[in-house]
Amino acid sequence: MKINKSALVMILYFIFLLLPIYWLLNMSLKTNQEILSTFSLWPNDLTFDNYKVIFSDPSWYGGYINSITYVVLNTIISLVVAIPAAYAFSRYTFMGDKHLFFWLLTNRMAPPAVFALPFFQLYSSVGLFDTHIAVALAHTLFNVPLAVWILEGFMRGVPREIDETAYIDGYSFFTFFGKIFMPLIASGIGVAAFFCFMFSWVELLLSRTLTSVDAKSIAATMTRTASASGLDWGVLAAAGILTIIPGALVIYFVRDHIAKGFALGRV
Amino acid sequence: MKKTHNQKAWFMVLPVLILVAFSAIIPMMTVINYSVQDTFGNNEFFWVGLEWFEEVLHSERIHDALWRQIIFSAIILSIEVPLGIFIALNMPKKNGLWTSICLVVVALPLLVPWNVVGTIWQIFGRIDIGLLGYTLEQLGIDYNYTQNTFDAWFTIIIMDVWHWTSLVLLLCYAGLRSIPDAYYQAAKIDQASRWSVFRYIELPKMKGVLIIVILLRFMDSFMIYTEPFVVTGGGPGNATTFLSIDLVKMAIGQFDLGPAAAFSLIYFLVILLVSWVFYTIMINMDKENE
């Protein structure tokens, strides 16, 4: 009886979560005419035209390519700088380490709205406005701290004795790090990469402020379509569905670690 | 874990330091610079001291936005935290396919881009084409989130609950999973009620994650921008203009650099203060655990 009650709660919650997404999917498979004229729970006249529009119009699919470009750049930059830093925080004490760790956290907590205008001016003045690298660098503001915190959480779980044994066995620091330590925290690196990817992918304000044409993100493309010419609901819904897919695909691989990532490595 | 003292570790931290300094400190200097100057255009600035800060601290518009923000964060926390705990208690306990499905479905809203969250609810709430709006309309409830303040708030709150309750749930679930079975067996032998199991076993074990959850949810709801911007654009009137929306309007919409910068600094100091409380509690908890 008890199991049934739990399952019921879960199923009700699932319905609450999935219904709005289903509705978006439903709309993306209808023609605009059908959306506006009849109200139905499923598409009467199934069409993939909305998706065809996105895959044939460069201003739409370009948005996805731009987004993926800066998201991948951001993930690489964040991990490259965060891995050594997280190792230092997990293994050594040094002057100002606690203050530095806290300062990193404050950047994760900083409202992007505060940084929107200064970023715009900073990247304009160095000639990086409307480039992928500008958005990638701007997103390191919250992703680097997050990556450091998550990786530190995973690295603390690796016993120090492993480091020491490796040195006794004659490994240099770099061979130890590459051959022994990195494989041990591979899942941690995967989770950190996932979260960098995700938080860069879902962000709108900074990516919209820092791009105009050449590097315009899919998020910005969507909001501009929504505000300009009369709304094309079907295409907008299809674009929304396509932005959910990457997250939904990779989530399966990190499902057991997802709580740790959201908790900044502290679970 | 015992750490060794090693100043050379600074070299490993240096890349992060340089990168984050470029992303955080330089823009912050710009903000400070603007907050104490005024301009008539043409890039000519002159010193005004703390005038902007005084103006911002006495501005009715910002007081209103701040109140809306505080009320919003309070409502969000008081719904999402109990609901998240309740659902976490109902998550399946054994590993298996059902558990994997639950985890994946539950995490789904967290991975939807924030503007798409806005789009989803913008469509879902419309009277003519949205399931929620249409159903409410058919039930005879007068619902229109673009016109009516209460409906706009209702839509944004239910959207945020949809979006973020899963975060509370996942972290609480991770906390619950760390409780050894022996605790439950002991409770069974003592014939403890469901409530006392929750109160004396589960809640204390979740204390750590709950502190993280409350502060994360507080912070993120305190700087919410994208979702209400897409759904209501801050309206009707200013009814859903929260701090970040107001700030962006001021800085990029009206280009009032001075007040916007002063506003940013005050906003950031509040965040800094709360983060510090969070960090102190967390560090103390880490020490207790060791």
Note the main attributes of this structure.
heterodimer; A: 267 residues; mainly alpha; MetI-like fold; 14 helices; globular; B: 290 residues; 2 domains; 12 helices; 3 strands
CATH homologous group name of the largest domain in chain B: MetI-like
Strand fraction of chain B equals under 5%
User: Uncertain spans of chain A, ≥5 residues at pLDDT below 50?
Assistant: none
Question: What's the arrangement of strands in the largest beta sheet of chain B?
Answer: 2-3
* Number of DSSP helical runs of chain B: 12
Fill in the CATH topology of the largest domain in chain A.
MetI-like fold
The helix fraction of chain A, in percent, is over 70%
Spell out the blueprint of helices and strands.
The complex is a heterodimer of chains A (267) and B (290).
Chain A: H1 2-28, H2 32-37, H3 49-56, H4 58-91, E1 92-93, H5 97-109, H6 112-125, H7 132-156, H8 160-168, H9 173-184, H10 186-202, H11 205-209, H12 218-227, H13 233-251, H14 258-262
Chain B: E1 4-5, H1 9-35, E2 37-39, E3 45-47, H2 51-58, H3 60-89, H4 97-107, H5 114-124, H6 131-138, H7 149-177, H8 181-189, H9 194-222, H10 226-231, H11 243-253, H12 257-289
Antiparallel strand pairs in B: 2-3
Q: How would you describe this structure to a colleague?
A:
The complex is a heterodimer of chains A (about 270) and B (about 290). Chain A is mainly alpha-helical. Chain A has helices at about 1-30, 30-35, 50-55, 60-90, 95-110, 110-125, 130-155, 160-170, 175-185, 185-200, 205-210, 220-225, 235-250, 260; one strand spanning about 90-95. Chain A has 2 domains: about 1-45, no CATH class; about 60-260, MetI-like (MetI-like fold), CATH 1.10.3720. The longest helix of chain A is centred in the N-terminal third of the chain and has 34 residues, at about 60-90. The radius of gyration of chain A is 22 Å and the shape is globular. In chain A, about 50% of the residues are buried. Chain B is mostly helical and about 290 residues long. Chain B folds into 2 domains: about 25-60 and about 255-290, no CATH class; about 70-240, MetI-like fold (Orthogonal Bundle). Helix content of chain B is about 75%, strand content about 5%. A two-stranded antiparallel sheet of chain B has the order 2-3. In chain B, α3 packs across α7. The chains are: A mainly alpha (about 270), B mainly alpha (about 290). Chains A and B meet through α1, α4, β1, α5 and α6 of A and β1, α1, α4, α5 and α6 of B.
